[in-house]
Design brief:
It is built from 8 helices and 4 strands. It has 191 residues and is α+β, with helices and mostly antiparallel strands. It has one domain. A hairpin with a 4-residue loop joins β3 and β4.
Length: 191
């Protein structure tokens, strides 16, 4: 905010104050129950590229293109998930957790009481609560995936980081999401 004010002056700050609730545009105000740290405007571009040529067609053809994409995507994801074990993390999240775990080398954990830590990383200090699943860096709370500071504390506390990842990222949840399918329908000539 200070950088924005420096670049744009008081008018920029006033304009930001008139915007909707900060939870819709500011990462630090995101709803932590959503467990998603992604806030981009690329959704529209991604959606448009998925539709391809159907995007330029009449509304019914466009809607049929969206339906077809959804049918295939849901069936493909459900089929892929059949091979996964219910009590595992989704493969992408498992890889991400391993990647984050490699970054703990720069962190040192100091326990202040059971489940409460101060993590030192270079010159920075991060208060961290394993009991409340909160690190002062904010990443764990927003994403639902432990940050490197939390993983460092978990190693000290002999806790498996996979056990504290949000349920949104478990295979069982993924399978529930893609358990439903969209039934095939006749083309409009047969309506």
């Amino acid at each position: 905010m200070e950088r924005l004010q420096k670049e744009g002056g008081d008018k920029v700050i006033e304009w930001l104050g008139q915007l909707e609730d900060p939870s819709t545009w500011s990462k630090h105000k995101f709803d932590p129950s959503v467990c998603n740290d992604s806030n981009t405007s690329n959704f529209v571009e991604s959606f448009n590229s998925t539709l391809g040529i159907d995007m330029c067609r009449p509304v019914l053809t466009l809607l049929e293109g969206i339906r077809r994409v959804c049918v295939v995507r849901m069936a493909t994801r459900a089929e892929r998930a059949r091979l996964w074990k219910d009590d595992d993390l989704c493969p992408k999240i498992g890889k991400l957790l391993k990647s984050i775990s490699k970054d703990i080398i720069t962190c040192k954990a100091f326990m202040s009481s059971p489940g409460e830590y101060e993590i030192h990383e270079g010159k920075s200090r991060f208060p961290l609560s394993l009991n409340n699943k909160i690190c002062s860096c904010g990443a764990w709370k927003i994403s639902g995936i432990p940050c490197r500071h939390a993983i460092r504390a978990m190693i000290h506390a002999k806790i498996d980081p996979q056990k504290v990842v949000s349920a949104w990222f478990h295979v069982s949840t993924y399978k529930q999401i893609y358990n439903y399918s969209i039934s095939p329908i006749n083309d409009k000539e047969q309506w």
